[in-house]
């Protein structure tokens, strides 16, 4: 039986959130998309779910770092892809925790490629 990798997407910008989610679902991923890390944490706790990968865009909203840190404490072994602005410094703890960091500019296809590397669609 094939298990779909479960991706949690945290993207403040709703058009980008919709593009990323649609592309990943089209490929076969199970995706839960949220505007903020706190929303994702609440959803995961409410349903008792564990993501295979967390994708978070901090390029436009560095304010949610504390929320993100709390979420990541709940999932210390979950892989992490950070989407960042080259103009915004990331804290060292986040740079060390991230499996990959993509700096803008990038295309949706770049994000999808990295997601497929970190959470491949395979039989489990």
UniProtKB/TrEMBL annotation:
<keyword id="KW-0597">Phosphoprotein</keyword>
<dbReference type="GO" id="GO:0000160">
    <property type="term" value="P:phosphorelay signal transduction system"/>
</dbReference>
<feature type="modified residue" description="4-aspartylphosphate">
    <location>
        <position position="57"/>
    </location>
</feature>
<dbReference type="InterPro" id="IPR001789">
    <property type="entry name" value="Sig_transdc_resp-reg_receiver"/>
</dbReference>
<dbReference type="InterPro" id="IPR011006">
    <property type="entry name" value="CheY-like_superfamily"/>
</dbReference>
<protein>
    <recommendedName>
        <fullName>Response regulatory domain-containing protein</fullName>
    </recommendedName>
</protein>
<feature type="domain" description="Response regulatory">
    <location>
        <begin position="6"/>
        <end position="119"/>
    </location>
</feature>
């Amino acid at each position: 039986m094939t298990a779909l990798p479960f991706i949690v997407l945290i993207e403040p910008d709703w058009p980008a959130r919709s593009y990323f989610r649609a592309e990943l679902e089209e490929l076969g991923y199970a995706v839960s998309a949220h505007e903020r890390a706190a929303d994702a944490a609440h959803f995961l706790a409410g349903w008792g779910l564990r993501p295979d990968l967390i994708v978070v865009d901090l390029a436009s909203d560095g304010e949610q770092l504390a929320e993100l840190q709390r979420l990541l404490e709940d999932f210390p072994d979950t892989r992490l892809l950070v989407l960042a602005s080259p103009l915004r410094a990331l804290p060292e703890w986040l740079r060390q925790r991230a499996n990959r960091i993509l700096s803008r500019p990038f295309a949706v296809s770049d994000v999808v490629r990295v997601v497929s590397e970190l959470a491949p669609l395979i039989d489990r």
